[in-house]
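Tokens in:
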């Protein structure tokens, strides 16, 4: 069969071209695919939403990543920051990575340009509090549990310790990050805060998810945002078709093409094998 011969001998350059078309076309046309949020993202969203139904609450966002992981973690940080700000509650920002400071600046710039937040007339300068960066990893978290102004003197008038927060979110690309926030903040909060339990959730790169799932299953983490798909899930939950959702579309098209090529390859192999017999 001539068709079979052609399919079994497709030039790899044609495959590369098809893959390039599959990735580039959705980016140019800006196709908007519906995204069904996963259960872990839904849990994180529900926990944050329920916590910030009332005023006078504070959330601490820890930017524990750098530019190399920004495509996965950046959209998460913006989506959660926007969600809480729209409730007119305070968002405090800290970094355990030195590169996290740049990520904080980038996220704040995007927040201040968001049309929905601009229309809300919320005083963003008052609601956003930057703690800054401090070296030391888990030692910083332990110190914050008892005395934040000792580590970050510029916030001495607005916060005392981690007990003043109602929720903590770590956007983590490694260590220090999610594990340290769970072990030295969330797990220790009841003893240090007179019975008050500080809920913790996290957004991580896709490769970190499996090692953190036990914390989710034990209830130590209130859900988890897993890589780009987790970020897209959260954007879907907050009703924002952002960069993660846009990047998921070409990725989905590329995966679909690869599946089709694998099916074609297997079919041609089976038919060819039968003919050879």
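Residues out:
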């Amino acid at each position: 069969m001539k068709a079979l011969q052609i399919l079994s001998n497709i030039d790899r350059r044609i495959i590369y071209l098809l893959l390039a078309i599959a990735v580039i076309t959705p980016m140019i046309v800006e196709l908007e695919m519906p995204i069904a949020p996963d259960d872990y993202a839904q849990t994180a969203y529900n926990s944050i939403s329920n916590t910030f139904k009332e005023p006078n609450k504070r959330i601490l966002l820890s930017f524990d990543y750098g530019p190399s992981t920004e495509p996965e973690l950046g959209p998460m940080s913006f989506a959660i920051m926007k969600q809480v700000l729209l409730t007119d509650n305070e968002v405090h920002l800290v970094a355990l990575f030195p590169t996290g400071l740049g990520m904080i600046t980038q996220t704040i710039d995007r927040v201040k340009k968001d049309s929905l937040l601009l229309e809300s007339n919320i005083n963003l300068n008052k609601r956003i509090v930057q703690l800054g960066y401090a070296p030391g990893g888990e030692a910083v978290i332990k110190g914050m549990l008892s005395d934040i102004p000792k580590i970050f003197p510029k916030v001495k008038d607005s916060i005392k310790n981690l007990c003043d927060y109602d929720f903590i979110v770590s956007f983590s690309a490694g260590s220090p990050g999610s594990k340290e926030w769970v072990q030295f903040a969330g797990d220790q909060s009841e003893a240090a805060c007179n019975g008050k339990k500080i809920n913790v959730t996290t957004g991580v790169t896709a490769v970190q998810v499996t090692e953190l799932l036990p914390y989710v299953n034990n209830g130590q983490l209130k859900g988890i945002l897993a890589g780009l798909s987790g970020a897209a899930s959260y954007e879907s939950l907050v009703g924002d078709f952002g960069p993660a959702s846009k990047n998921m579309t070409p990725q989905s098209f590329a995966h679909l093409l690869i599946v089709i090529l694998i099916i074609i390859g297997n079919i041609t192999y089976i038919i060819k094998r039968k003919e050879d017999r």
